[in-house]
Amino acid sequence: MQNLPKNKKIILFDGVCNLCNGAVQFIIKHDKKDVFRFVALQSELGKEICNYIGVDQTKIDSIILYNPGVAYYYKSSAVIEIAEELGGIYSFMSVFKIFPEKLRNYIYDYIAKNRYNWYGKKESCMIPTPELKAKFL
Questions:
Q1: Which residues form the signal peptide (predicted)?
Q2: Residues in CB range of 11: below 8 A, 6 or more apart
């Protein structure tokens, strides 16, 4: 895939989900090594990346972590990989790897299914501030 930044991991997220947008803000605040870039799943680039890695957007209700040329992760595995990359206390999330992925994803799916009811939904994707614009593709 062309034109993606070198040495950056890309987080694809639901751009209209308040929980997802809050998670993006949290990651930006704690991404001290400037590892991550962000793309809304609803955007053209988000759709292009999903097609490229073979993820059917109509069947996925998840955050996706894409490490270009290496691998991609979704659902609970993406959350754990992101937390590990943030380091510090967040790297302790890796302890959840002891649980089967199927169990982790069952819990993830329950939250994902209810996220709009619990946290709300925006009418359109978030527009980043000028200071944050470089973090979004």
A1: none
A2: 24, 27, 36, 37, 38, 39, 63, 64, 65, 66, 78, 82
* Interatomic CA distance for residues 130 and 136, integer angstroms: 11
Each residue of 4-23: pLDDT tens digit? 888 899 999 988 778 888 89
Say what the pLDDT of residue 102 is. Answer: 95
Of the candidates 133, 8, 19, 137, which has an alpha carbon nearest to the alpha carbon of residue 82?
A: 8
Domain ranges of the chain: 9-125
- Helices (runs of H) and strands (runs of E) counted in the chain: 4, 4
Q: What is the pTM of this model?
A: 0.87
Place of tokens 């949290």: 26
